[in-house]
Amino acid sequence: PAKVRYHWEYSDGGTPPSETLSFEEAGTKTVTTGWSLRTDAKSIPRSVSLVVTAPQQRTWGSISFTHTCQ
User: Fold this and answer.
1) How far apart are CA 47 and CA 63, in angstroms?
2) CA–CA separation, 22 and 2 (whole Å)
3) Are 8 and 49 in contact (CB under 8 A)?
């Protein structure tokens, strides 16, 4: 068994609380995040990265996007 601890990092400096996944055997799991932006937030490029902090530190490539409020 293994535990993986991770958190998300948002380009605006936001970092939601860390979460932990438990694995009973080798495999993959899907993780998701939600990012609430104010309706008056500017339509500028943003990004989000996944950071694994245990058992080894690793930052996965960021995903970039531009949002548009309508």
Assistant:
1) 5
2) 6
3) yes
